[in-house]
Amino acid sequence: MLMSVTRIQRDRAFKVVRNPPHRSQLCTHPRNLTKGTLDLDLHLCPAYAEILERVKNGYQFLDLGCCFAQEVRLLVSDGAFSQNVFGVDLVEDFINLGYDLFLDKEKINAKFLVSNLFDTDSIVSKELTGKLDIIHASNFFHLWSWTKQIEASKAVVKLLADKPGSLIIGSQVGSKKSRMTTMPGLILTLFTQSVRTFKLMRGEILRDLGVDFEVKAFETEFLDKEAFMGGRRSLSFEVGFYGEECLVDTSYLGSGFLMR
């Protein structure tokens, strides 16, 4: 799918990923270049068709921790207006490598920002707080401890527009039982959450932000079982404001997703 979206040859794509400029610096970053760096998951969300339609009609979308921003390109290639799409990453080299990979620096009109989510004076905090309709945050929250994941969740919730239909979606590394774990190829230990602990975050966020939401989460096995052994799972989630505009049919999701 990625290759058809970007119209580039497979060999060239992986040459850019495996041998980027400043590779030594990039590989010391927690989100370093691993086997799944180019994975796409946004289109797997049950609400993807509705998300796409909304962005086509003026809703503001953010890919948080966008890395090469392949999800941004997928959304735009499917017809979303790029002026309504933002990508944010802490590492500017990732964004620049995305331009190298997709050969579209002069073509794409999506706005890419280099910013730290935890910095209240950052460009993201100043420009986007309370303005975003849909936030995609995959392989993001699991980079930190339990306490820091709660802090990150609060910061992301603050970016949402305060209206029915506002939405946070994504997936991350999870576990049957929450624990500290080391992922293959990464330089740090992560707190991988279970469905139960992910639900517990609701109380922490409700207490501090005064917003109410329902928490749901579901897990699936990684497709690459060999790389992710030892009980690790993919934990998917969704955060959405209550209201008639809610995107997701929760009966379809069963025990899945995080709803606000």
CATH homologous superfamily descriptor: Vaccinia Virus protein VP39
Q: Output the CATH topology.
A: Rossmann fold
CATH architecture heading: 3-Layer(aba) Sandwich
Helix residue percentage = 25-40%
Broad CATH class = Alpha Beta
Main sheet summary:
7 strands, mixed
Give the helix/strand class: alpha/beta
Q: Shape, please?
A: globular
Number of strands: 9
How do the strands of the widest beta sheet line up side by side? 3-2-1-4-5-9-8
> How many independent structural domains?
1
Give the end-to-end Cα distance, rounded to a whole number of Å. Answer: 31 Å
Mean pLDDT: 74
Number of helices, where a helix is a run of at least 4 consecutive DSSP H or I residues: 10
pLDDT < 50 stretches: 22-35, 223-229, 242-260
Determine the strand fraction and express it as a percent band: 15-25%
Series of secondary-structure elements, N-terminal to C-terminal: HHHHEHEHEHEHEEEHEEH
Write the layout of secondary structure elements.
Elements: H1 2-6, H2 10-18, H3 23-26, H4 48-56, E1 61-64, H5 70-77, E2 85-89, H6 92-102, E3 111-114, H7 123-128, E4 134-136, H8 146-159, E5 167-175, E6 179-182, E7 189-192, H9 195-209, E8 217-220, E9 232-240, H10 250-253
Parallel strand pairs: 1-2, 1-4, 2-3, 4-5
Antiparallel strand pairs: 5-9, 6-7, 8-9
Helix pairs in contact: 2-6
Structural features, described:
38% of the residues are buried. Strand 4, helix 8 (146-159) and strand 5 (167-175) form a beta-alpha-beta unit. Strands 3-2-1-4-5-9-8 form a seven-stranded mixed β-sheet, sandwiched between helices. Strands 6-7 form a two-stranded antiparallel sheet. The protein is built from ten helices and nine strands. The protein has a single domain (2-253), classed as Rossmann fold. It has 260 residues and is of the alpha/beta class. Helices cover 33% and strands 18% of the residues. It has helices at 2-6, 10-18, 23-26, 48-56, 70-77, 92-102, 123-128, 146-159, 195-209, 250-253, and strands at residues 61-64, 85-89, 111-114, 134-136, 167-175, 179-182, 189-192, 217-220, 232-240. Mean pLDDT is 74; it is low at 22-35, 223-229 and 242-260.
